[in-house]
Amino acid sequence: MFLTDEEKAVLDGSEGEARAHAMDLMVRYAKALGAERLVETNNVCGGVVGSLPGRRDVLPEDKRHDMNAVYSLLNLDSDKTLDIPPVKTNTYRLIEAMDADLYDVQGVGEETQRLVRETTAFCQKSGYQLCNTCTPYQVGNVPLFGEHCAWMESSAVIYINSLIGARSNVEGAHSTAAASLIGKIPYWGYHIPENRRGTHLVEVEYPIDNMLDWGLMGYYVGEKVQENVPVFTGISGVPNANKLKHFGASMASSGGVEMYHIVGVTPEAPTRDVAFGGNRAQETIRFGRAELEEAYSWFSTAKDTDVDFVVLGCPHGSLEQVRLVAGLLEGKRLSANTDLWMFIPRSIKAIADRMGYTDTFRKAGAYLMTDSCAALSKVSPKDVKTAATDSCKQAHYLPATMGFGTWLGSTEQCVNAAISGKWTGGLE
Ligand code: F3S
Questions:
Q1: In terms of domains, do 384 and 336 share one?
Q2: Are residues 134 and 22 in the same domain?
Q3: How far is the CA of 132 from the centre of ligand 1 (A)?
Q4: What is the pLDDT of residues 272-288, one digit of tens each?
Q5: Is residue 283 part of a domain?
Q6: What is the pLDDT of residues 109-130, one digit of tens each?
Q7: With the C-alpha atoms ordered 73, 78, 79, 81, is the resulting torsion angle positive or negative?
Q8: Residue 44 lies in a domain
Q9: Which protein residues are within 6 Å of ligand 1, measured from CB?
Q10: Are 190 and 259 in contact (CB under 8 A)?
Q11: pTM to 2 decimals?
């Protein structure tokens, strides 16, 4: 594998032990992938592991609150405690284990609070931007077309690859940590133009309109194409960012899709031929009403129509989505038996506060929460049996990670369920 003189020097310790270790990890990773070289990146989004209880148990007891030791082992795979220097690249923190203000409402115990305080202080010291969201692109980190990135969250990677034309693979906690210290990532996968070409054709024969339809189509196609690159034709009009955020998140949940094209919409697909770039479609998939219904049928994990918990904001909600939900809640009160939590980025929450949306939520008995999410941070009200959500991704994870029977429906149906306490939604 080719290394520049500068990369070799870092490997030999010119920038200290921790960066040498990070370079070694990156070179081993690149070799395992079959990459011929590394590429520069100045845009990393990753996780700092160790704020959920149990994750630090692999460390000796006296090291479990030493963040250099925690980060060395859990993020850089080093048994030796390294002195972790500041990040070298723009580095953004993804989701955290709790909302920094509403952890009591989330039922987060003291042990987790302590672990989160420690990881937060570590991020502040090392220069990780504390965005704490799975949607960095909603809060100021919008990469340029062609920019090489090292992002970890699958719903965000598919978004920036497909809708912006930035270049990233779905990275892990180790590779993003190493990239943050050396500013390099293997030149492999979706960094290489040829790998971004379409492989499967999807002919859409049904007017895909609302966010649920987009989510279901994404889920269906992800299941069919797995880790390939679908090219969609037959889409009329230009969908908005919220719908495509759900679309990509769904495809990345049911399959491992990291890149797609919509002919006439996404930047690397001005025409079908350009999207395929000379590839022959391996398969043609038709998507109509029957396929939409089939995808919806995969989600019927709930039996009880009494809904305890409504989860919105997966991926984290936009200001536009907060406004929609606030409008639905205006002057209403949630059922005494039901909670509604909507997850959003912290900086969007700041605007929601100024707009009065947070007050509207609170008056109705609902919460706008930040930094976290139900399925991945594993936070919920007490004794939930049945949840409802407007997100295919959250509906995919909640039964597995939280054990909740989960209804899937539109945002409006979910808010209605929170107000009445009953599920009456379904595919329209
Ligand atoms: Fe984000 Fe959690 Fe969904 S991390 S994409 S809100 S599962």
A1: yes
A2: yes
A3: 11
A4: 999 999 999 999 999 99
A5: yes
A6: 999 999 999 999 999 999 999 9
A7: negative
A8: yes
A9: 95, 134, 155, 249, 314-316, 343, 373, 375-376, 393-394, 397
A10: yes
A11: 0.98
